[in-house]
Amino acid sequence: MLKKQAAIGFIFITLLIDVIGWGLIIPVMPQLISGLKHIPVNQASREGGWLLFVYALMQFVCAPILGNLSDQYGRRPVLLFSLFGFGVDYIFMGFAPTFGWLFLGRSISGITGASWTTATAYIADISDEKTRAKNFGLIGAAFGLGFIIGPAIGGLLSGWGVRAPFYAAAILSLINWLYGYFVLPESLSIEHRRPFSWKRANPLGSLMHLKKYPALGGLILALALVYLGSHAVQSNWSYFTMYRFKWTAKTVGISLAVVGVLVGSVQAGLIRVITPRIGNIKSIYLGLLLYAAGMFLFAFANQSWMMFVFLIPYCLGGISGPAMQAIMSGNVPPNAQGELQGALTSVMSLTAIAGPLLMTNLFAYFTSVQAPLLFPGAPFLLGGLLMLSSSFVAYYSLKQN
């Protein structure tokens, strides 16, 4: 029992440090790229999009492979490999003399970045029916807490130089790796292991399972549009605010910490109050309209303080995602829930490949001399339109069913 508790504690710390490390570097990434490429921050967004693209692509291809390797060789070696990879990535980026080194670092991180997948499997291994929900709840808690701490500290560390957050992230990751090497036990017993299979490691394989549920096609498309539209914020926030309002890395870090607090409040508290009262369907419509409203407000904001205020409706839109997933889950038999969630993860991964390139290139174009008009808010406008489109698709799909 004590071993299980210690393992759960380590997994929580592992995920927390992962997110803190990720959050540490977000506020300073625009300045680092801008300095290495000798270009203004708005044009650096295009290069930043390529870094996000290569990370998402490598993770999409390699996560199923590492997941299958963990089924054959155990969770511990794969998890330690992932943690070490993150540390190497941050070292590469911290000492990068050219942009190519950043690209290489992000590639390594994407290849080894299966810590969340493997950690989830680890939790499943050591949980029973009574503790599974509580233990899986730690994943969401780690993400929320990490995204509050990481950007805030990253913004503060930027006062010591644009590379300081990378050094801090590397130290955190490698300490976590060492801790795991000496403390983390294996969770998957020999008798429960299975040989590696390339068929199961096919990243497109889980998407094929969606054919079994044609009635869910509309809602899956709606969710994909939400994921795609959200990259107007996720991939572009730092570049937009630094260009439009001359924010420093510290201000960007504080704003992202605010996002973490708001998202955590919605996910942990507000959903439990609103959704039972108005139901899943109305939660979907309300959430998507709030998402769209937040995006449109970001697009036309002309004062720095507005970005903080407009985060409120945008983050409140977070009530739509869980409601959408709840309806989809309710239309799938119990023995196919894992299959559905795997397919939805693949959908999210594909949008994480396409979304950054779309949104950062749009921002770079509409802040360049080639653009017909100067409009830095173009990605947010597109994001809002995608959210509105999602609401129409969801309405049509739910009406049909």
Can you characterise this structure?
This protein is mostly helical. It has helices spanning 2-25, 29-37, 41-73, 75-94, 99-112, 115-126, 132-157, 164-183, 205-208, 217-234, 237-245, 249-300, 304-316, 320-330, 337-365, 378-400. Helix 12 (249-300) packs across helix 13 (304-316). The longest helix is centred in the C-terminal third of the chain and has 52 residues, at 249-300. It is globular and about 65 Å long. The model has no long low-confidence stretch (mean pLDDT 82).
List segments where confidence is low: pLDDT < 50 over at least 5 consecutive residues.
none
What is the average per-residue confidence, as pLDDT, rounded to a whole number?
Answer: 82
**Main sheet attributes: strand count, strand direction, barrel closure:** none
Number of strands: 0
Secondary-structure content class: mainly alpha
Helix content: over 70%
Radius of gyration of CA atoms, rounded to a whole number: 21 Å
Globally, the shape reads globular
What is the count of DSSP helices, taking H or I runs of 4+ residues? 16
Series of secondary-structure elements, N-terminal to C-terminal: HHHHHHHHHHHHHHHH
What distance separates the N and C termini? 46 Å
Tell me the β content.
under 5%
Please specify the SSE layout and strand pairing:
Layout: H1 2-25, H2 29-37, H3 41-73, H4 75-94, H5 99-112, H6 115-126, H7 132-157, H8 164-183, H9 205-208, H10 217-234, H11 237-245, H12 249-300, H13 304-316, H14 320-330, H15 337-365, H16 378-400
